[in-house]
Design brief:
Low-confidence stretches: 9-28, 370-381
Number of strands: 10
Number of domains: 2
Helix content: 40-55%
Radius of gyration: 23 Å
CATH class of the largest domain: Alpha Beta
Order of helices and strands: HHEEEHEHHEHEHEEHHHHHHEHEH
Mean pLDDT: 84
Largest sheet: 8 strands, mixed
Strand order of the largest sheet: 1-2-4-3-5-6-9-10
């Protein structure tokens, strides 16, 4: 009897262990798989044997007064729906990394919508992007009771602004995004950014300077100046050393003020140069700076930023996190603007970032948990 009782205990303990392992795999298996795929792209082929591939559909959305092509990544059994807003990229919705992310999220049960934002694909912001994101969200909300939006880089600003119009969203994400365009201008032109009394300096690339000009073209008064500045930006992006004096000479005051701001390299000159911009330009920049609306977001807020980002400073995400109050914040020490750096500085940073990516992955995959995800007190480092 003692022998049977001991055997029974062994079986009960073994059974409990097996049940625990299965429960753990069910709860965290998709998170671990997504995290592994993001960190080690070479793992995709064998993970695809476990998680079925989604179907990609080409659709057309009506948003912002125009028709927008979009891709829908549809899993077999969607649990939630997520809108991805791309950044400044000529490839737009078909940027290789964005396609891969959408595919991975859909593989794990998320219906993913990725529209083509024509302005962002042309390296431009003009305000129309916000209404386009709103239109895409209207479509998405009709697809699932648990819906969210995640914006990347300069696409994060319009995503946050549009999200403020939809209080029932389950999740809002800003990845490498900005809080105030004026801070981004200071950073790109001088390499300086600040937060909480601390001052940081990072070396800038000339390419970013002219990408900034392309971004600002839509804010400029006068069609002629916009056309001239757009041509200057295109030529400088192709060759920063090219002479554009012939295009600069006809610029009116509004266009010349923007070009002077972009060319500036002195931190102490930025404020005056911003003040010298036309009222229309300043108003347009303020309207596309999401910081004032972030406190209104009721969804779970995810914010992540690479600390080596040379396009948008990580201090912008710190500002967003403070304003959101309930945000989950991840500052990634081994990431730049578009992904992981080729050489990581230390195993401690590597492991810390791996944990942060795992937590972000888990939040993205669990949007459907109890509808709107519960809010957390304070920011999470």
């Amino acid at each position: 009897m003692r022998y049977l009782s001991a055997r029974r205990r062994v079986w009960l303990v073994s059974g409990a262990v097996v049940v625990g392992i299965v429960a753990f795999a069910v709860r965290f298996g998709p998170t671990a798989a997504l995290s592994l795929s993001l960190a080690v792209p070479g793992s995709d082929p064998w993970l695809a044997r476990v998680f079925p591939d989604p179907v990609r559909e080409d659709i057309v959305l009506e948003a912002g007064g125009r028709m927008m092509p979009a891709d829908v990544y549809r899993p077999e059994r969607p649990r939630a729906a997520l809108l991805l807003v791309h950044g400044l990229s000529r490839a737009g919705r078909r940027h290789a990394e964005l396609v891969r992310l959408a595919h991975l999220l859909a593989r794990h049960g998320q219906l993913v919508l990725v529209p083509e934002f024509a302005g962002l694909a042309a390296f431009r912001l003009d305000g129309s992007e916000v209404e386009e994101v709103r239109g895409a969200l209207r479509y998405l909300i009709g697809q699932s009771p648990a819906a969210g939006v995640a914006g990347f880089s300069f696409g994060a600003g319009p995503a946050l602004l549009a999200a403020a119009s939809y209080p029932d969203l389950a999740l809002v994400g800003s990845f490498g995004g900005y809080a105030d365009l004026r801070n981004v201008i200071t950073y790109v032109t001088t390499g300086v950014h600040t937060f909480g009394g601390e001052r940081f300096v990072q070396r800038q690339q000339e390419y970013n300077r002219w990408k900034l000009l392309a971004l600002l073209v839509g804010f400029v008064d006068g069609e002629r100046d916009r056309a001239l500045l757009g041509t200057i930006a295109r030529r400088k992006l192709e060759d920063p050393a090219v002479d554009t004096a012939d295009l600069e000479a006809p610029l009116a005051r509004a266009g010349r003020a923007v070009l002077t701001l972009v060319r500036n390299r002195q931190e102490n000159a930025v404020a005056a140069l911003l003040d010298d911009l036309s009222p229309r330009t300043r108003e347009a920049m303020a309207a596309l700076s999401p910081l004032p609306v972030v406190p209104r977001l009721t969804a779970r807020v995810l914010i992540a930023h690479g600390m080596a980002d040379d396009s948008i400073p990580f201090t912008e995400s710190l500002r967003l996190a403070v304003a959101a109050d309930h945000a989950q914040l991840a500052l990634l020490h081994t990431f730049h603007h578009t992904g992981a750096q080729p050489f990581w500085s230390s195993w401690r940073d590597r492991l810390g970032d791996a944990w942060s990516v795992a937590r972000l992955s888990d939040a993205l995959l669990r949007m459907d948990a109890a509808g709107t995800i519960e809010r957390r007190g304070g920011t999470t480092p």
